[in-house]
Inverse folding.
């Protein structure tokens, strides 16, 4: 019954990880613009945090940068990529070939980060057999055997609420290590599997909170 | 140049808002299961935070609950809905009628929260004129006039990177108060407009971080 509110499981670390994702994108931008070094003050400014926060976040992972000279952009970018596990290739299975599943499947940002969908499953006979890219949509009834023969690291859930728990249970049986759940429902999962719930409405609720309080 | 890393702009508040979104969903769940009262300990347990955190988050907005009795589920749910601005109707314009735009447009969770798309814009002649639900996809060239006549509160950006800044500039000109940006690029926006950048890869990076560190 833990790991429900995204980002609250291990608070400090999770927020640090989110900021690392932000620094990574800023550094990639700077690198593309041929910027060679960056100070913690400038990195903080671009990321909307203090320079102390930048230094603290990075200090968890070692000693980077040189006093007075700042960080080497490419080196720090590569280091953060490694910290975030983005130097590997992660295989993912998609459960739910609806419009959200389709959007995720064709989202370029995932491939750039090293996340690849290798399997798609759905229960809808109208979808089964069709192909997205060069991957055929398979019936969920084939999922267990298929994923036992060709395992994935991460399962992505875009099924209806009612199917989410059974889908996660199946993922656990075939040995996924991480689950990304877009179904707006709480799912139970063994504590050794990592779970992230993504609720697309949360960002809108944050906007409406601030817009209402003005 | 602020407001870039989602959640870091006004740190404490933004994270409190995220947790409020979580409490709201838990309370809605409890209400559906006919639970009448809930303690801060139980709410914290369900949300993966401490009871002290629950009490602190709620204390920003007034005095709820009764010592020893806990919170009334329905009352607290309604109060948090109001705090989050979910008792209003928010009109939204979608820019970018691609697969992600489509997934957001048909996402039920938004309507349940009071967020409604009233306009869709794209530049692709193959898409213009088609309808999603009862809303016709209009050319971007009509957007400025259309949104001046029938304003929206929130603009949602699912355009390619290259079109994101011009889209946001247009939204600012027609007076949106909030922008939800899914384009994986940094956009500049006047400080009086609220911006949330949503990067779908961040949740995956958080998974790969923890999966790598095991």
């Amino acid at each position: 019954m833990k790991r429900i509110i995204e980002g609250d499981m291990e608070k400090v670390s999770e927020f640090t990880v989110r900021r690392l994702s932000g620094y990574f994108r800023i550094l990639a931008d700077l690198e593309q613009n041929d910027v060679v070094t960056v100070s913690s003050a400038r990195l903080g400014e671009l990321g909307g945090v203090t320079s102390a926060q930048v230094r603290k976040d990075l200090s968890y992972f070692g000693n980077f940068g040189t006093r007075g000279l700042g960080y080497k952009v490419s080196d720090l970018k590569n280091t953060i990529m490694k910290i975030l596990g983005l130097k590997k290739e992660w295989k993912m299975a998609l459960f739910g070939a609806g419009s959200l599943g389709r959007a995720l499947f064709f989202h370029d940002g995932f491939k750039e980060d090293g996340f690849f969908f290798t399997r798609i499953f759905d229960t809808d006979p109208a979808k089964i057999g069709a192909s997205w890219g060069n991957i055929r949509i398979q019936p969920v009834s084939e999922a267990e055997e298929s994923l036992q023969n060709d395992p994935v690291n991460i399962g992505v859930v875009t099924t209806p609420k009612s199917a989410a728990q059974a889908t996660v249970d199946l993922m656990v049986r075939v040995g996924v290590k991480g689950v990304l759940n877009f179904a707006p429902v709480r799912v139970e999962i063994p504590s050794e599997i990592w779970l992230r719930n993504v609720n697309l409405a949360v960002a809108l609720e944050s906007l409406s909170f601030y817009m209402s309080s003005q």
